[in-house]
Amino acid sequence: MSDASSANKTALTLLIAVVGLIGGVLAAVYVRAPKPVTVQSATLLQTPRPLPEFTLTDQDGEPFTRDNLRGKWTLIFPGFTYCPDVCPTTLGLLKTVETALGPRAQHLQVLLFSIDPERDTPDTLKRYVGYFSPTFRGATTSEPELQRIAQALGVAYIKVAGDTPESYTMDHSAALILINPQAEIAGYFTPPLNADTLVQDLTQLLGTTP
């Protein structure tokens, strides 16, 4: 066999080996790549939005910061304990969702973000969220920090005067803010909310938790 023929064979063998190696790497990347998540009832952000540093006070009187959002998915619901209808209805629905998720619920936390710090003291929040689930949390802070955090979350609210100074109410947006385990805004669940659909969507999302 000539030297040229031998060289060609060696080059061909090397080329086949390289192509095989590249193919193996691409196959591994394809297998390991996360599968796209499709949800029915949420608008997922194409690029999750990081949250700024913040400090709330939770139902136990302890600081609740951005670090408390890391490591699991979070549903943040803006509301207040004196809310007559939307808030208790939504939290009751989330309790139904938590129960239906079963063991998967350990990867999810629910936070009532109170936009009524004047009345929603830690003790009040603790009694209120505890009525729905012992795992639910509540937190708030005073103005102007409350407004800063609300804007970062995409929450709108306004105080509406009542017949007496104490009987005011709060109008607020009712979408659930979805926070990923990296403490970023991943999307929004907008009303009307349905328990079965939420369970299906959250089951997919929780399945992506590391």
From TrEMBL:
UniProt xrefs under InterPro entries: SCO1/SenC, Thioredoxin-like_sf, Thioredoxin_domain
SUPFAM superfamilies attached to this UniProt entry: Thioredoxin-like
One of the Pfam families matching this protein, by short name: SCO1-SenC
Keywords, sorted A to Z: Copper, Disulfide bond, Metal-binding
Disulphide bridges: 83-87
Positions that bind Cu cation: 83, 87, 172
All copies of domain Thioredoxin, residue ranges: 45-207
Signal peptide per UniProt: none
Family: Belongs to the SCO1/2 family.
Entries under PANTHER family matching the protein: ELECTRON TRANSPORT PROTIN SCO1/SENC FAMILY MEMBER, LINALOOL DEHYDRATASE_ISOMERASE DOMAIN-CONTAINING PROTEIN
Protein name listed in UniProt: Protein SCO1/2
